[in-house]
Amino acid sequence: MFVRHVMQLGLANVGAQALSLLIVPILTRLYSPSDFGVFAIYLAILNALVPIASLRFQATMALPTLQEDSRHLLRISLIVLGITVALTSLVSGIVVTGGFMPTEWMTDQRQFLLLLLPLNLAGLGLIQIYSAWTMLQHQVKATAVARITESIVDRATSCLCAFSSATHPFGLIAGRLFGSTAAAWSLWKSSHPSARHVNSPQHLLQNLVPLAKRYGHFALVSSAATLCDSAARQSPALLLAFLFSPAVAGYYALAFQVVNVPLLIAGDALSSTYFQRAARFRKRPDQLAQDTGKLFRSMLSLIIPVTLGLSFLGPKLFGRIFGEEWAQAGEYAQVLAAGFLFMFLHRPISVLFDVYEAQTARFWFDIANLGLRIAVMMGLAAWGGSPILVLLGFTITCAVTYGFALIYLLRMAGISPTESLWTVARQGILFLPLGLGLWAITTSGLFLISALCVLGVALGLQLAVLFKFEREAISFGSLLLPGTVQPR
Questions:
Q1: Predicted pLDDT of residue 197
Q2: Helix, strand, coil % (nearest 5) of the chain?
């Protein structure tokens, strides 16, 4: 069942993100880098708030042994989300009416876009809550359908707004708003009727308050850590807009979206399914270590080819696919590739913080991560660095902080630091044929046909190496299947 869930969610994410990527070249010709920059600012604020919209109570639904307790935690999550949305509405109104947004970020006509933030937060918060609930009820199909629906509505709305000459970048924001609303409605419709039933206030007090107190510390500490983590992830867009211009943030936003595709395809699905499996086997360290090792190897096998491709071909690919105006975004993607490799590896494994209730350790790590990112990026900018240099500092910071966190988490799962480093080195060596082929293409100035021939030979050698030394990496699901015999 675990493998089937991973495959269903993986295919849904692949379909949703493939659709999004197919539309992006159209959007980059309909919207300017400045429009993407304003959208990136809006999205950075939104994405920083979404993970804590329900104070992480949705993550506690998998912990109780009683189904009724999980249902009560669902209702607590919804109540907390309502309070968060109300507070966000109040703050957004104050910011807009008080004129606190920098004029370089938003013109007077654009400041009203912040008023859409609470509505968008409500939709994404509901997706977050009901996704956790449907996964708990093994309704993976409902989650998959919702993700496809969100992608279709999002992109269709953005294109229609642009074609109708709507105020830019309203179309991009409207797409995200309507997409999240459609997905939230789909998940709510698919949830069990008892999950949608509203009890009397007396019943709520009698059943919800004790559970809220029981998991309150977990939720608050986890939320604080998650806020630092999400702020660290979104800080580059805000800092680039503040230090340089919204257009620079727009280039970064496109690079982030393209580099982040592996994270969105596999990371979210793996995080939810791996969390349930790790919670089930946390008292069986041998099984947990085996599953975690397979997961780690499979993630390396997924992300290393993407990282190599972006590192060698980023600027050329972006210029040809998204338009020459966006070639600079390809240079950003080239610099960011290594940093996002570590972010991708960390994302699913980080659920071990919750499994072992080590929220305090996660909190201090996320604070250090956020502080280092801000200090490095602002320090390099103050030193007179260009956006490329600032992003290079960001990438190095990601590699160091997430690298140490991965070693800590894998050790928590029963995998020694020596074994972790050897796994990374081994997977890197296995992909030498692809790396050498891409290097030859970019440094020798080959013509198109010659370059394709070299790439074909490199891919053929790469597949032969994988089939001989890493057969499990060929099948994404088999890497996560418990009890699979390791190839010799």
A1: 56
A2: 85, 0, 15
Q: How far is CA 56 from the centre of its chain?
A: 16
**Burial of 383: CB neighbours in 10 Å, binned 0-12, 13-18, 19+:** exposed
Q: Give the DSSP letter string of 353-365.
A: HHHTT-HHHHHHH
Q: Name the residue among 19, 37, 39, 80 with its Cα closest to residue 177.
A: 39
Report yes or no: 207 and 66 within 8 Å, Cβ to Cβ: no
**Residue 475 backbone dihedrals phi, psi, to 5 degrees:** -105, 115
Q: Are 61 and 272 in contact (CB under 8 A)?
A: no
Task: Give residue for tokens 């669902």.
Answer: 74
Measured CA to CA, the distance from residue 474 to residue 426 in angstroms comes to 16
Q: Which residue shows structure tokens 């459609």? A: 182
pLDDT of 184 reads: 92
Q: Please state the separation of Cα 247 from the chain's center in Å.
A: 23
pLDDT tens string 365-416: 888 888 999 999 999 999 988 999 999 999 999 999 999 999 999 998 888 8
Please give the single-letter amino acid code of residue 224: A
Q: Do 377 and 239 form a contact (C-beta atoms < 8 A)? A: yes
The pLDDT tens digits for 188-241 are 888 766 555 555 555 666 678 788 888 887 777 778 878 887 888 888 988 998
Q: In which element (H, E) is residue 216 found?
A: helix 216-243
DSSP 8-class letter at 192: -
Residue 98: CB partners within 8 Å, gap ≥ 6?
none
Name the region of 168 (left: φ>0; alpha: ψ -120 to 50; beta: rest): beta
CB atoms within 10 A of CB 288: 22
pTM confidence score = 0.77
Contact indicator for 77, 93 with CB cutoff of 8 Å: no
Residue 358 CA to residue 211 CA, distance in Å, equals 19
What's the rounded Cα separation, in Å, for the pair 361 and 56?
16
Q: In sequence order, which residues have a C-beta less than 8 Å from that of residue 314 and are 6 or more positions away?
A: 330, 331, 333, 334, 337
Under DSSP, is residue 180 helix (H, G, I), strand (E, B) or coil? helix
> H-helix or E-strand containing 20?
helix 2-30
Residues 319-341: what's their mean pLDDT?
Answer: 89
Q: How far apart are CA 244 and CA 344, in angstroms?
A: 27
Q: Rounding to the nearest 10 degrees, give the CA dihedral for residues 110, 112, 115, 116.
A: -50
Report the alpha-carbon distance of residue 231 to residue 282 in Å, rounded.
29
**Do 242 and 382 form a contact (C-beta atoms < 8 A)?**
no
- Rounded CA gap, 210 and 221, in Å? 18
